[in-house]
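Teaching note: in complex prediction, the entire set of molecules is handled at once rather than each chain in isolation. The prompt given to students was simply: 'Predict the structure of this complex.' The entities are:
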Amino acid sequence: MKLRTLTLGMLSASALALAAHAESITIATVNNGDMVRMQKLTDDFTKANPDIQLNWVTLEENVLRERVTTDIATKGGQYDVMTIGTYEVPIWAKQSWLLPLDKLGDEYDVKDIIPAIAGGLSVDGKLYAAPFYGESSFVMYRKDLMEKAGLKMPDAPTWDFIKQAADKMTDRANGVNGVCLRGKAGWGENMAFLTAMSNSFGARWFDENWKPQFDQPEWKNTLQFYVDLMKADGPEGASSNGFNENLALFQQGKCGMWIDATVAASFVSDPKASQVADKVGYALAPDTGLGKRGNWLWAWSLAIPAGTKKADAAEKFVSWATSKHYADLVASKEGWANVPPGTRSSLYANPEYQKAAPFAKMTLDSINAADPTHPTVKPVPYVGVQFVAIPEFQGLGTTVGQLFSAALAGQSSVDDALKQAQDAATAAMTEGGYIK
Amino acid sequence: MATQQTRSLARFMMAPSVILLFIWMIVPLVFTIWFSFLQYNPLNPIRDGFVWFSNYKLFYSNPAFLQSILNTLTIVVSVLVITVIGGILLAMLLDQPIWGQGFVRILVISPFFVMPPVAALVWKNMIMHPQYGVFADIARFFGANPIDWFGQHPLTAVILIVAWQWLPFATLILLTSLQSLDAEQKEAAEMDGAGFISRFIYLTLPHMSRAITVVILIQTIFLLSIYAEILVTTNGGPGYASTNLPFLVYQKALLEFKIGQASAGGVIAVILANIVAFFVMRAVGKNLDK
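The expected output is the structure of the full assembly:
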């Protein structure tokens, strides 16, 4: 009896000791499909690192931004790993809010990261976030509906062709909308799309002296085209639709075309999730012949806030989640088509991936077609394709997004929305000390 | 009769809780007022500093400000009208001896148990959604075009959702009051030849007036700070069509990270809430003195 008690006591003591050693890290992430899949596969990580426990905080894009930004700006210390994008990394790294990732391990192969993406996540040559997936945007379309409309989608369409095709595909009686585009307000929602689109129309947010440009004809052309296109061929309630809403619509066969993130390709071509999986074609984002296409560049990336006390464990996790090993793991469990795209050159050289992902080449071409340092036709003082990499943009982008979503909903005219956007941008730039 | 000593002792013993309560209220308020005089943006720490009243000026001159005040008041008044009138009707209905009365009462009260964000999500995605919602299905069944509630009538949509949530509260309070109405009085009125409408106007309604006052006072306080329903359904938009004052403060604080302006907005909201409360108390609060 005594021996049993003693053994039990020792066992529980050792369990307690183990628990005391186990470190738990909290990861804030976005509720996109790839991230949710990663959470399901973490057994692989915890088996190799039994002393690290993972806590997840999974949030919708807008809410995630708000939480992690508040946490890092107020030094809240809630999260040990944060999912952030190419917008935040350069700004936050400059303010010394992020730890440089220099202990990712010998097998990590940093040089394999696609240069455009690595460049967006580095400051002074140091990597401050590891890309989980990278994306540009392109056109996803229904091959069957195009054929029915008697048209053939070119690899590099113009906006006029998109309008023509959308008009022909729209069949409201049968619930088919010619085109689905983002309308939900937010700098990372409708403004990501509209800013990228405006680049192809020759528009820009600011001139070289940071003067807002919404009073210029290029913006009027962009917004008028967008509103007219959506009114004629878009879905009901488009002003509430963001990435996830449009994904659901496209998967249910309610959109003829959808211009959005390249990362969506693996979801719309997955027969388990998409009713139209075998009918999807891909093309580069449209242009107007001015030399810039309407596609963006983005990477959802994992970064470690400078305030964390668990930097080593956090970096081990970041290294695992963005490694080649993780890509192999996803491939073995869920097939090559579901590997997070857009981050590593080796993936695009892999014949198995090329075979499994018909969108691979178009994705890489789209990523390479975006240049964050020269995003517009006319010169600009900022970096970023679908955003302006200054701290004020987060607030301003969302305000302008609200105004443009009101124009889409018919609550205000295109002219009013642009005038208000010009006023809001002028006020924000004056307040921020960019213009006097 | 309390002696001087016991009274002093009572004061002495109560003092800690009163002081704690006072600190509990005053500290956040003082912080808010202090921040409202600072240019404080955590994303751009270089430009911090004391700026006197310029945050108030910026908040006031924001084109969304007047719209948000109007929206706040529209929400309060509309929801009060719907819930008080609907509450009286439902209370009178539930007061009748009907079959399955207990079950019906639970059903009517149940929306109050649903948390606001959950209720808003259900209304957004399952009821008012222009593609998948029940309302859209009904419209299509009758050959009509579905209404894009959150795009075309965002404020109405928010008001409907909030009213749905608060109707049970009003019904419950008003039903309790109705049940306390003496049956003999009703009989007497009936025997004197008073019709249904006369009985309602001269007997039932005056009897319910105190309960109605309680409903209006309590609801006004909560309706001034509606937030979750807007965040989940319309995000204040399109444009500023459904932005109310609390949502504007949230937008300034957590989307634009202009803490100074948000604090100024918070102070303005407190002042406006007090003005509204003053008028409501003057208008209906006298019922409570009887």
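Point out the following to students. The two ends of chain B are 27 Å apart (CA to CA). Residues 206 and 234 of chain B are 39 Å apart (CA to CA).
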